[in-house]
Amino acid sequence: MRIFVLYGPKFCSMKISQEVRDYAKGQNEIAQGLQEKAKEFREAGSNLYLADVVE
Q: Which residue, 1, 13, 16, 26, is the most exposed by fewest CB within 10 angstroms?
């Protein structure tokens, strides 16, 4: 029988809280980048294929 202990460096609530904040920050940065790309797409005419593609 194993006993799992929820304390120590791997289960420190402060560490977990910081990891959640870091993750959320990364998600916000991704969302901001996607918004910028969407703006570029709209400004370029919202076309999936550009006419100046070189074959």
A: 1
